[in-house]
Amino acid sequence: MTGPVMEVELFRSESAAGALLRRIERLLKRAGATADEPVALMEVCGTHTVAISRFGLRSLLPDSLRLLSGPGCPVCVTPLIEIDRSIAAAETPGTIVATFGDMMRVPGSRSSLESARTDGADIRIVYSPMDSLQIARGNPGHEVVFLGVGFETTSPTIAATVLAAEREGLGNFSILPFFKTVPAALDMLAAIPDRPLDGFICPGHVSVIIGAEAYESVARNRNMPCVVVGFEPLDILSGIEALLEQVADIRTGEGDARVEVRYKRAVTSVGNVAAQELLRKVFEPCDAEWRGIGVIPGSGHDLSERYSDFHARERLSLDVVKPVEQPGCICGEIMLGRRLPTDCPLFGEACTPRRPVGPCMVSTEGSCAAFYKYERNAA
Amino acid sequence: MCLAVPGRVMSIGSDIAKVDFGGISQEANLTLVPEAKVGDYVLVHAGFAIQQLDEAEAEETLRLFQELAEAADREERETRERGRDRTGENTRDYNVSTGESTNEEKGSADGEAER
Ligand code: SF4
């Protein structure tokens, strides 16, 4: 088979969308949802956040369905102290910081990587973590520090980079790991008692790596429907449909929560085993702080003992004072599914993508930033 | 951050492949998909292919979407025929709401549940 079956346009048919929307309406009725007591579904992936906003899906869906935006942007949930640490690394003489572009504009407590670069720090934006090895080879007298931000989609690429550095004996390459892992966060989110949540739109590309079975325990132990969803409009509507089928079944006593995949062209039950092996080799699970939320046990990846030499803190002194978050930001409440960006008094006024106050506005994939860009007037 | 783009493997040299993204060709590291072959579709993220895409599954999903679309179009035609003499309403809209429909009670858009 050689047809261009991966063309995105094919996943955007309006008539199919119309049909899915009608099914969604019927399922919401069967679930007994109303505008006052809507079914609430949460996505936990910045790419979903942006797709839902960009395609205007909220305005197409009935008001008996609420789409919440969870902590799906790894840049946004990177603690302020780690941003300060990254800047401290960049300001250390003899150091080059290599990073994905998303990190550049995130404000730390005093400045950002972007303004540190303007002030003379050597900070290079890379497309792939492997590019930072090229920088290390070309600058043997410098320490090259890669900022390790990301979920399970990204962390295997950095694990592979660390292994390549080891193989090559590159002594001047290290990373600052801020990696987050999704399943433990979902479990924490599912266990919050004081706000309604009926199911997870599980992140498509994280699931490529970890596999759909990683959500089994959340589905089973929390009776929380989990559907792995792709990123085109039909993928998303189809995922919502699958979630609502489960919600209606649960509410009518006809079934229990389970894990389903509606992104089968990319996601299997077991995931990418080669990538998982690299993760296990180079990293180990750790407790991690999610900005705006707090520490979630077992929700991060640190370098394993064997690779701990690759931690930048072994090579540089990165002591920074614990910074204080700006008051007034309700990002934590938004990411936990209690509020929407438009509920924040600072939204669009004191807090904009140009001058972000809180984490959800710092990256284009943050829920406040996506709302600001695409749904400000609709809201 | 988790954006990944589908492309087609054009050639492979050691662990680096040339991948075609609709006419634009870029290199991608194959460490995470050691089994990828020339002609495969892969998802590329941060310079790495992270998954081989399953074309048969993609076609199955598209076939189900297509069926949904056809059922919706049929329904729309019927609605239009029923209402032709009464209103000139535009039914070709996301929020088209009609009565009966075909092919909607059973099955789902992307195959059965994962077990
Ligand atoms: S609008 Fe700004 S201050 Fe308000 S919750 Fe969002 S990021 Fe925080």
At a glance:
In chain A, 36% of the residues lie in helices and 16% in strands. Chain A is α/β, with parallel strands linked by helices.
Features:
heterodimer; A: 379 residues; alpha/beta; Rossmann fold; five-stranded parallel beta sheet; four-stranded parallel beta sheet; 14 helices; 12 strands; globular; B: 115 residues; alpha+beta; SH3 type barrels; five-stranded antiparallel beta sheet; elongated; disordered C terminus; binds iron/sulfur cluster
List the helices and strands and how they pair.
The complex is a heterodimer of chains A (379) and B (115).
Chain A: H1 14-30, E1 39-43, H2 46-54, H3 57-60, E2 65-69, H4 80-91, E3 95-99, H5 113-118, E4 123-125, H6 130-138, E5 143-148, H7 155-168, E6 173-177, E7 179-180, H8 182-190, E8 199-203, H9 204-210, H10 216-221, E9 226-229, H11 233-251, E10 259-261, H12 273-282, E11 283-290, E12 294-303, H13 331-335, H14 367-375
Helix pairs in contact in A: 1-11, 2-14, 7-12
Chain B: E1 5-13, E2 16-21, E3 24-29, E4 41-45, E5 48-52, H1 55-83
Antiparallel strand pairs in B: 1-2, 1-4, 2-3, 4-5
Bound molecules: iron/sulfur cluster.
Iron/sulfur cluster binds at residues 329-331, 334, 341, 344, 346-347, 351, 357-358, 360-361, 368 of chain A.
| CATH-defined architecture of one domain in chain B | Roll
Q: Report the span from N to C terminus of chain B.
A: 29 Å
Euclidean distance between termini CA atoms of chain A? 44 Å
Which chain pair has the greatest contact?
Answer: A-B, 69 and 53 residues
Number of helices of chain B: 1
Q: Beta-strand level of the residues of chain A, as a percent range?
A: 15-25%
Q: What's the architecture of one domain in chain A, going by CATH?
A: 3-Layer(aba) Sandwich
Which CATH first-tier class of one domain in chain B would you pick? Answer: Mainly Beta
The strands making up the biggest β-sheet of chain B line up spatially as 3-2-1-4-5
Assign the CATH topology of one domain in chain A. Rossmann fold
